[in-house]
Write a structure and sequence with these properties.
Length: 227
């Protein structure tokens, strides 16, 4: 299983294309990645089976509709975060300065505007057990799905071979914030202890933003994991 990284120009969201036997899924279609992802897919002749999101924040779903339309596939997202798709800015709970203000500025710098956002027309939510005993199946691609609430209610880790796509749960040297609507510090502590803390140390980590790392390195050094 191969994982290809495309960094979005807005908030440097890490979008990944996970490929297995010519099939692929696109995870976290941040703002400004659609054209690059389409070109990458078509150059290699891959078949896109789904677009996935680690959680429902708009910096991880902005280009989901464009890619779902381009390839005729649905967005897969944990059912607890589907409500965010219809009102991406409102569900951030902030206006003016802060996260929403910074996001609007970052979008504007790329020639995008809040009114440009479209929710995907086809959304197929999954629950705690995904499709088959904790596995999400999309063509030849099989991902282990680990619910990881705390940053949002439906935050999810996807394990693809020797890589974990961590979204905004785990970063190199840090963890996701819990002070936005739907964030829960107690749930995050449980996720870090019971989900992240039990990951295979040999896994590479692609976080939602920033440099890649490894589970072993974070368990040893990340102050939020008791390193």
């Amino acid at each position: 299983m191969d994982v290809h990284l495309v960094v979005a120009p807005v908030f440097a969201t890490n979008c990944t294309v996970v490929v297995q036997d010519g099939d692929c899924v696109v995870v976290d279609a941040g703002a400004g990645v659609a054209a690059t992802v389409e070109r990458l897919v078509r150059e290699h002749g891959w078949t896109v089976r789904a677009v996935l999101a680690t959680h429902g924040h708009v910096d991880h779903t902005w280009d989901a509709a464009a890619l779902c339309d381009a390839f005729g596939v649905p967005l897969r997202i944990h059912e607890a975060d589907t409500y965010r798709l219809a009102d991406p800015f409102g569900t951030l709970g902030l206006t003016g300065p802060g996260v929403s203000g910074a996001l609007v500025q970052a979008l504007t710098a790329q020639g995008l505007h809040a009114d440009d956002y479209r929710a995907p027309s086809a959304v197929v939510p999954f629950g705690a057990e995904a499709d088959d005993d904790g596995t999400l199946v999309a063509g030849a691609v099989r991902l282990r799905v680990l619910p990881a609430p705390g940053h949002t209610e439906g935050a999810t880790l996807y394990v693809a071979g020797d890589v974990v796509l961590a979204g905004d749960v785990l970063f190199a040297g840090g963890v996701g914030r819990t002070d936005l609507p739907g964030g829960d510090p107690a749930a995050m502590r449980a996720t870090l202890r019971d989900v992240v803390g039990r990951l295979d140390p040999g896994l590479r980590v692609v976080p939602g933003h920033g440099p890649t790392t490894t589970v072993a390195h974070e368990l040893a050094t990340n102050p939020y994991l008791g390193g």
